[in-house]
Amino acid sequence: MIGGIQNLISNPALYNMTQSTVTQVTTETCLKAIGRPAFILGDKQIDPQTKKFSATKELLYQLTCLGIYLSMIHQFKRASFAIGRKLFKNESVFKAFKHPGEFMEYYKLDEAARVKKLDEINKNLKSRDKFVKENLNLNLGKGIIESCSIFGTVFGLAILAPIVSHPLIHPILKVMGVENKQPQKNNPAAAQNTKG
User: At what angle do helices 138-153 and 21-41 cross, to 10 degrees?
Assistant: First the structure.
């Protein structure tokens, strides 16, 4: 059992995955989508209708955040190499790879596989400039991708998600029957029932 845990923890694929902003934010948002509604539903001091409303609203909000994040982060990652090419015109890492996906594929390879991959890239080049492994600033390439991912995270989750979720969530709650169509304070019949 301990050997299995050790193999899992020392797995390079797991390490590479945890080094990605996208993986970290996606995992956190999924855990929030499960944990927060479960915590609300488990609270014995809240009446059932409030629990149902709050838990459903929280689930819908987290799912909205996740959807916005995943759709936006892809665009920010794609833009990262375009930004890198403008900011760092002479860096070969932005010339050798067409898009961030291709770079990340290369980044995760071991040394022998990197040499082979560079040979493939160089074979397809029409120009005389050949890329040499030592001249590729991998940290700069990874840094620009992660910087754009972090910016996309802030923009998507802190700015865009609240703007999109408010007009989206309440109609869904009404359709599901979790949210009353009229607030109780505006409903005279409900007000009389509470007085009596």
Answer: 30
pLDDT band at 187 (very low <50, low <70, confident <90, very high): very low
Listed in order, strand segments (DSSP E) in 1-154 are: none
For residue range 9-24, list pLDDT tens digits in order. 566 665 565 567 788 8
Q: What is the pTM of this model?
A: 0.68
Return the closest-CA partner of residue 22 out of 86, 58, 87, 71. 71
73 and 149 in contact (C-beta within 8 Å)?
yes
**CA separation for the pair 196, 194 (Å, rounded):** 6
What pLDDT is stored for residue 194 in this prediction? 38
Q: Can you tell me whether residue 41 is helix, strand or coil? A: helix
DSSP string, 109-154: S-HHHHHHHHHHHHHT--SS----GGG--HHHHHHHHHHHHHHHHI
85 Cβ neighbours under 8 A, 6+ residues apart: 94, 95
Token pair in block for residue 154? 């802030």
Q: How many CB atoms lie within 10 A of CB 42?
A: 10
